[in-house]
Amino acid sequence: MDDDDDKKDMKPRGTGCGCQPAENESKTFVWHGDRSPLYDFPNNEINITEKWPRGFGQITQAGKMQAFQLGQFLRNRYFSLVGDRYHPDDIYMLTSDYDRTIVTALLVLSGLYPAKERWHSSIDWDPVPLRTIPHEIDNIIAFTAKCPKYEHQLDCYRYHGTGRMLDANYTKFYAYLSNHTGIPLHELNFEKVNDVFDTLYVQDVHKLGVPKWAKQHAYEGQEHYLMRKISEYTFSSLTYNEIAMNLRGGPVMREIMRNFEAHTQQQHSSHNRISKFKLRLYSGHDSTIATILQVFGVYNHQLVPYTGTVLIELYKRSYKTDEPSCPQIPDPFSDMYFIKFFYKNCTTQNLLYEIPLPDCRDITESSDINFRPSCSIKKLRQVMRSVLQGDWYQQCKYKSNCCGSCASFKKSGSDFSKFEYESSVSATMQWLRACL
């Protein structure tokens, strides 16, 4: 049999029992590329303003290239979805209102859509529009919108829960850190340690070295060095209990479901632009990625690398009922639309992992290993019902004189060591390798 005959007999990738998946839409959440430090401390040996004259939290040259290369990666993955040329009905980019996320968004779009039509002989760039969310109303990406009840929950974590126990566990280390950084001891907590660690990490990435006093704590070993471990708690605290999870994760989860369900209902009228877009991109922060991973129950409690990316893809499963081999199901629409969840957790390599979602495996697995549907939209809504319900603005209301309880924690003090090493790690993510 020659190659052409062989190709004719081949089944399409992903077919199983006459059922062909067809990609409909994707939501992609991106952390920006390499940046300058966000924070300085009094005894820092590096002059940050001299090294990074553009100031704190600005995208670097390396970060620009990382964002552009991510755009190229997305172009390769979604070329069949959005095509070779930009069209306003194909793609939607939303970013938080920070310089570094806006620049990242512009460069991702530039990599996604290389210039095809030259509007100037010396400029090889075709601008693609994006949208930003003002800080005051951003409850999706940077989560800078005011939510008093969420702030109360964080205070509970800081001063009454695991955060307090964490700080109590490391009083000697905090004294050591205060002595070398110049930060007053009373100001040090696990969040401030995260700030220091982030600054040292950025300086190390830029080959500026690490001070000797930090090496024995921050850079000894790999996964378990002290400052990094404490830093990881900062991100774990974002959605540490059900209330915090619903308040922080609710808006972004509603955004995801609202658009996916618009597609499943085929609302492609001129009055509903929501469902038109084939690819929705969100340019945000490491906290954005951590929150999404936590909401979906797949956070592995490791720091997100630069340009770490979550891809949530919507598929339509087509049932060819005229084929005897295809099983008849009572309600073919109940699992016709489903999602797959992917995590790109490496800056320098295009490594993409498909992550199975806990409590959301209601579709019979195909015998084809290339076709592994994760979770139907119907089932996803059931699993996420507590996160999706209610009005966020009403939920955020909080009066300290009537409801000041801090009793709701995932783990009690007696479970601290277990929480630290085991219980908080999702079983589905134990195999996932962090790439920093």
TrEMBL record:
UniProt xrefs under InterPro entries: His_Pase_clade-2 (IPR000560), His_PPase_superfam (IPR029033), Histidine_acid_phosphatase (IPR050645)
- Hydrolase keyword on record: yes
Checking Gene3D superfamilies in the record gives: Phosphoglycerate mutase-like (3.40.50.1240)
What is the organism field in this record? Folsomia candida
**Family membership:** Belongs to the histidine acid phosphatase family.
What are its E.C. numbers?
Answer: 3.1.3.2
EC class name: hydrolase
SUPFAM superfamilies in the record: Phosphoglycerate mutase-like
Q: Which reaction does it catalyse?
A: a phosphate monoester + H2O = an alcohol + phosphate
Name of the protein? acid phosphatase
Any Pfam family hit: His_Phos_2
Q: Which UniProt keywords apply?
A: Disulfide bond, Glycoprotein, Hydrolase, Signal
Q: Which GO terms describe its molecular function?
A: acid phosphatase activity
Per the record, which residues fall in region Disordered? 1-21
